[in-house]
Amino acid sequence: MKVFCLGGAGKICREAILDLVQYSSFKKITVADFNEEEGRKVVEWLNDSRVDFVKVNVFDHEETVEKMRGYDIVMDGTAIKLNGLSTACIAEAGCHAINLNGFGEEDRSHEIFLAHGKTCLPGFGMTPGLTQMMAMHAANQLDSVHSIRVSHGSYRPIAFSKSITETTTYEYDPNLPTRVVYENGEFIQVPPFARPREIQLPEPYGTAVQYIIPHSETKTLAKALKNKDVQLIEVRGTWPQENMELVRALYNYGFLKNETITIHDQQVGIMDCISEYLYQSEKGNTTKLYGYALHVEVIGTKDGKFYQHTLTHTHPASDGSVEGWEGLRAYTRNVGIPMAIATELIAKGSVAQKGVIIPEEVFLNPQAIFMELEKRGIFVQEEIKEVKSLEDEIILA
Predict the structure, then answer these.
(1) Phi/psi zone of residue 80: left (φ > 0), alpha (ψ -120 to 50 degrees), beta?
(2) Contact (CB, 8 A) for 119 and 355
(3) How far apart are CA 74 and CA 96, in angstroms?
(4) 270-280 helix and 162-171 helix, angle to the nearest 10 degrees
């Protein structure tokens, strides 16, 4: 098998490639990126005869398609704004596809993937990705599902890469139509910082107030659980506290609208200026605590009784006590590893469905994903407790 790792010079995608080197059966692993200098550094770092480099520019559609042809799958680590372009290239090249984001740009290529008999899985990292697996693991044990609350803490600097800064400004865009909750059969749009809720994440992250964010889990879980009478799906997230304070201030002052201002006769977006500053500053590239923490709460019925399933996830510490998980790598490996696991499973033919599909349709046995993660030191824990009724204070909190 051969895998084309698009955006492979990025800090997250290179961790996914490392996982492929360490665990997969691919015979050829190509680091593909526009940044040749960084891409070749990744090849040198991996130091494996199966790994090579190809320079690629997804804005050149025909050339990119030609370079992808012959590969079994493209593992796409590019930024949100490129996913429409990159997916169109992958579809035409006749390869399977997977990416981290899953914001819907991929849907336009559905018929082409079908025509080639290929699978496209948008949005499979930690969130979205593992979060859906955790929710489905709980839902599969229940006769009906009343509510699903997905939460995560993403502990990384606000601007360690330009694509991460882009994600920040995207998720808190005041006019974003995809920031929704699923409630009583309808998708309801909500503003930034809506529905604050205190979430207790595993240590060392602790408790923090989280807000609704625009993530694909809301729609994919609603689709996957349409036969289980689900009434409520909410997805929340947080970054380090000082990052949240900054984003809140930017929102309050209107900066997140990214309105155009004039500087020395040049027209620039105000958020573009701020993002560039953060990317170039030490403050934008450091934080006190690194890593990832997931918290998924599913409430439903089994044999006429109400149960609350709470699933969390833990990983090696970022304090240097575990080699390879130091500092920022405790975050980037958490995101990259699930994508690598799913990449091989798709390439090996473990997924029968074709076209653009959601994680819940791809991996019907979430525990298979959990078992692979355990090999890497990433663990999913589950707590189940009976609750009296839907009026119980646990549910209403």
Answers:
(1) alpha
(2) yes
(3) 6
(4) 140
Phi/psi of residue 311, each to 5°? -115, 135
Please tell me the distance from the alpha carbon of residue 133 to that of residue 175, in angstroms, as a whole number.
30
Compute how many other C-beta atoms are within 10 angstroms of the C-beta atom of residue 174. 11
All CATH 3.40.50.720 domain ranges of the chain, comma separated, are 2-121
129 phi and psi angles, rounded to 5 deg = 130, -95
Query: What is the greatest pairwise CA distance in the chain?
Result: 69
| CA 286 to chain CA centroid, nearest Å | 21
Distance CA 195, CA 248 (A): 14
pTM of this structure: 0.93
Instruction: Please state whether the peptide bond connecting residue 204 to the residue before it is cis, i.e. omega within 30 degrees of 0.
Output: yes
Mapped onto helix, strand or coil, the DSSP state of residue 297 is strand
CA distances from 388 to 46, 172, 308 (A): 53, 37, 10
Question: Which amino acid is residue 377, in one-letter code?
Answer: G
Q: Which regions of the chain carry the CATH code 3.30.360.10?
A: 130-331+378-396
Superfamily of domain 130-331+378-396: Dihydrodipicolinate Reductase; domain 2 (3.30.360.10)
Compute the distance between CA of residue 242 and CA of residue 284 in angstroms, rounded to an integer. Answer: 11
Return per-residue pLDDT of the chain as tens, 397 residues. Answer: 999 999 999 999 999 999 999 999 999 999 999 999 999 999 999 999 999 999 999 999 999 999 999 999 999 999 888 999 999 999 999 999 999 988 788 999 999 999 999 999 999 999 999 999 999 999 999 999 999 999 999 999 988 887 777 777 778 888 889 999 999 999 999 999 999 999 999 999 999 999 999 999 999 999 999 999 999 999 999 999 999 999 999 999 999 888 999 999 999 999 889 988 999 999 999 999 999 999 999 999 999 999 999 999 999 999 999 999 999 999 999 999 999 999 999 999 999 999 999 999 999 999 999 999 999 999 999 999 999 876 654 444 4
Task: Compute the distance between CA of residue 18 and CA of residue 76 in angstroms, rounded to an integer.
Answer: 15
β partners of residue 188: 181
Task: Look at domain 2-121 and name its CATH class.
Answer: alpha beta
